[in-house]
């Protein structure tokens, strides 16, 4: 990702929108690069956290973690619904991303249902 900074947004948003999202001034471009760096760091931390949680044997902690992930995906969906759809350059992408957030929260919900079934059988 870090070597293809200009190509990654073109995959998600298209070439014209990606060109507009790059920023018009050097200050804007620097802010966007810093934001991308923090987003990459956040993805690494989330992956590392999921890797650590996968080895926890405590069922109560995994249920707590799954509830937190559901809350995170629902709040991200609400963010997309109320704020991202107002940004004209990414307005056509928010329904697809909202569906992705819904599917990810549904996967965590299915994990909760499976763990409840295992607990009460």
Automatic annotation (TrEMBL):
<protein>
    <recommendedName>
        <fullName>DUF7865 domain-containing protein</fullName>
    </recommendedName>
</protein>
<dbReference type="Pfam" id="PF25266">
    <property type="entry name" value="DUF7865"/>
</dbReference>
<keyword id="KW-1133">Transmembrane helix</keyword>
<feature type="transmembrane region" description="Helical">
    <location>
        <begin position="63"/>
        <end position="82"/>
    </location>
</feature>
<keyword id="KW-0812">Transmembrane</keyword>
<dbReference type="InterPro" id="IPR057187">
    <property type="entry name" value="DUF7865"/>
</dbReference>
<feature type="domain" description="DUF7865">
    <location>
        <begin position="1"/>
        <end position="109"/>
    </location>
</feature>
<feature type="transmembrane region" description="Helical">
    <location>
        <begin position="94"/>
        <end position="116"/>
    </location>
</feature>
<feature type="transmembrane region" description="Helical">
    <location>
        <begin position="38"/>
        <end position="56"/>
    </location>
</feature>
<keyword id="KW-0472">Membrane</keyword>
């Amino acid at each position: 990702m870090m070597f293809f900074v200009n190509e990654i947004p073109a995959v998600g948003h298209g070439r014209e929108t990606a060109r507009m999202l790059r920023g018009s001034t050097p200050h804007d471009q620097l802010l966007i690069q810093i934001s991308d760096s923090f987003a990459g760091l956040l993805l690494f931390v989330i992956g590392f956290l999921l890797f650590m949680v996968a080895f926890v044997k405590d069922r109560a902690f995994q249920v707590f973690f799954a509830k937190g992930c559901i809350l995170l995906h629902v709040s991200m969906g609400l963010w997309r619904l109320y704020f991202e759809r107002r940004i004209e350059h990414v307005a056509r992408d928010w329904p697809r991303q909202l569906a992705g957030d819904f599917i990810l929260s549904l996967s965590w919900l299915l994990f909760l249902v499976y763990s409840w079934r295992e607990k009460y059988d």
